[in-house]
Amino acid sequence: MPGLLALTGAMLLAAGCAAAPKPDGAAGAGSVSAPATLFVAGKRGNTLSKIALESGEEVLRKDSCTNPHELATSPDGMFVALACYGGTTVDLFSAATLERVASIDLGENARPHGIVWHESGDIFATAEGRGSLFRIAGPLTDERALFEFATGKEGNHMLAVSADAKTAWTTDLGSRTVTRIDLVTRRAPFSVTVGEEPEGIALTPDGGALWVSARGSNQAFALDPVTMKVRETVATGRFPLRIAIRPQGDVAVTSDLMDGSLSVIDLDGAEVIRTIRVSGPEAAQDRFQVTILWSDDGRRIYVAETASDTIAEVDYASGTVLRRLAAGEGGDGLAILP
């Protein structure tokens, strides 16, 4: 496969239907200034759910696609994009009604997983079955076009994209690597080995560091986004599936599945400064926490507990689980609209 395949919408597109605020600290468990709506991909139930965070109630649930995993909201807040891991499409839904408005086919064996709806309006998604990354330009327009970037690696799982949309990075579970992809010059992708089974990935708000969590070696790594050299290595809890950076850029948390907890990493000091208990190790297998997501104000962390069909809402300041929100079967991917 060439390093870049430019594909027009007519060639590879199947349409099924037509700056965070920076408070000086986190609030306590009292008033909730969290965003209003949480979307959840139910990978066992093949659903998309919508939860009103003020009440904590699931207000809408619709059938989506086979084994949906990650999802993302459009910059204008009008749509939700869902990576259909059990198939070949990225499906777009109305945020208001959860009605499907488009289904974008990425080709044979695509198995899309990680997804970012960029501020530019384009969607980026990993295609694990094809060993590639896709850029979907103008996803809601008649001029929609697909561009495929081969990585040469196995298991392209999660991704991060630079603010200028010129560079993307993927974690490659099967190859034990992290890959940098130049989205403009078409230079060959550059990969480095990072721990065992790197999966979680996040770029700091200033773009100065790329953080990766390696679930097989219980570590988090800070990489130089350009040279891809490892700057820091941090021991985390057990099986850190995901890593998410607080909007303020001061800390990151890893989702430590085997411990039922979150490791809080000070990014300047590159060290774990706190551990937040979510379910604890004794209930870790019953909850099976996966995806983590910060509220836009950095006061709440949402933790998908896939086995118990719940989303834990955690107060960052106190480390308290405020409530557990019921969602569809096997809730995994999360996205928030303020």
From TrEMBL:
Keyword Lipid biosynthesis applies: no
Signal peptide: 1-19
Annotated YNCE-like beta-propeller domain residues: 10-334
Keyword line: Signal
Keyword Signal: yes
Gene3D superfamilies: YVTN repeat-like/Quinoprotein amine dehydrogenase (2.130.10.10)
Protein name in the entry: YNCE-like beta-propeller domain-containing protein
InterPro entries assigned: Host-pathogen_enzymatic-act, Quino_amine_DH_bsu, WD40/YVTN_repeat-like_dom_sf, YNCE-like_beta-prop
Pfam families (UniProt xref): YNCE
PANTHER family associated with the record: DIHYDRO-HEME D1 DEHYDROGENASE (PTHR47197:SF3), PROTEIN NIRF (PTHR47197)
Domain of life: Bacteria
SUPFAM superfamilies tied to this protein: YVTN repeat-like/Quinoprotein amine dehydrogenase
